[in-house]
From TrEMBL:
The lineage of its organism: Eukaryota, Sar, Stramenopiles, Ochrophyta, Bacillariophyta. This is F-box domain-containing protein. Residues 308-332 are annotated as: Disordered. InterPro entries: Lon_prtase_N_sf, PUA-like_sf. It comes from Phaeodactylum tricornutum (strain CCAP 1055/1).
Length: 332
């Protein structure tokens, strides 16, 4: 081997060693910086409790606040309580939960303001409903629960107003909010549905009379019957139950929902149950528009089909007349 070969090899090795030393030095500096940052975190424990609470408030979000939208996990329920016992106590801080309700009130009044009105027994069209501020409504709702716990209030709103659990009627079709429609229930599982939903109502309500208490269930009008599929909460506004369990019902769609969970209730003749999450205002508006467009498309398709059938009948009639004319000419 020549001297030039060994010289080039020496330069390459030297360059590699310098590069490796620089990389290791950079990694060491980064590690030192991280250790320094970690080591300084112990100062947090020396802060006054009010300061700790103020700092954590910047990351203290409640369920359904964080992205992706409608995500049920949050820092207050699934992250911060796991850090330490002190953090677990901090997560019960009422100011965090009150602030979370007020944020949700501002973000989605379509759901949260309505829920607070129901808890406070305030009519939506009343003067009080139009003038009450978020803090006032939150305070009033917490007092209405007879527990001054904003965490309990948050949980009640989610459990009883944002979420819905109930039996499922599974059949495709277009459903629009505020547009009533009639159905006849005859399958055994839907006889069970009617029995359960109408339980507690007076006998007159089961014979076409007024239904004093809301009778609600889920109409899953889109496939598949699975999580993330949109569905509709419907209210029975008129009901006629027959001795064999069949029923004629008039239904009013009241809310669009996302299906979260689906299961079959044991000993129910394969009746599905679902846990659902109500849609916000913008998505509800989009769903209603989609339903109208689908309904219009179906009507146009039906009319087009009738026109095609009419044209086919006319062609058949003309052909028959032509045949009759030809027969007459041949006879002549």
């Amino acid at each position: 081997m020549t001297i030039s070969f060994w010289f080039r090899k020496f330069l390459i090795d030297r360059k590699y060693k310098k590069s490796r030393r620089r990389t290791m030095a950079k990694a060491k500096d980064t590690s030192s910086a991280q250790n320094s940052s970690t080591a300084s975190f112990h100062l947090f424990t020396d802060l006054h409790e009010d300061l700790k609470l103020a700092i954590l408030s910047f990351v203290a979000d409640a369920p359904f606040e964080s992205m992706p939208e409608n995500y049920p996990k949050s820092s207050l329920t699934h992250t911060l309580p796991l850090v330490s016992k002190q953090f677990r106590v901090f997560c019960e801080e009422q100011s965090y939960w009150k602030a979370a309700i007020e944020r949700q009130f501002q973000k989605e009044p379509f759901l949260w303001k309505r829920a607070l009105h129901k808890i406070c027994d305030i009519a939506p069209a009343s003067k009080e409903a139009g003038t009450a501020t978020a803090p006032d409504l939150v305070e009033q709702a917490a007092q209405a629960l007879q527990k001054a716990s904003f965490k309990a209030l948050y949980k009640k709103i989610v459990t009883d107003h944002i979420r819905f659990k109930g039996p499922v009627f599974f059949m495709g079709g277009q459903v629009q909010l505020g547009e009533p429609y009639a159905l006849h229930f005859f399958e055994p599982r839907y006889r069970v549905l009617i029995t359960e939903v109408m339980r507690g109502q007076p006998e007159s309500a089961k014979n076409g009379g007024r239904i004093p208490h809301p009778a609600l269930f889920v109409h899953a009008n889109r496939a598949p019957l699975a999580p993330t599929t949109p569905a509709t909460i419907v209210e029975i506004v008129q009901c006629q139950v027959y001795p064999d369990g069949r029923a004629d019902v008039l239904l009013l769609p009241t809310a669009y929902v996302w299906i979260e969970k689906v299961w079959v209730r044991p000993n129910s003749g394969h009746l599905y149950y679902a846990q659902c999450l109500r849609m916000g205002q913008s998505v509800t508006h989009s769903m209603n528009q989609l339903s109208r467009q689908e309904t219009l498309t179906n009507v146009m398709d039906m009319l087009a089909g009738r026109l095609d059938n009419t044209d086919a009948e006319d062609d058949t009639e003309h052909a028959r007349q032509d045949d009759d004319t030809s027969s007459d000419e041949d006879s002549g």
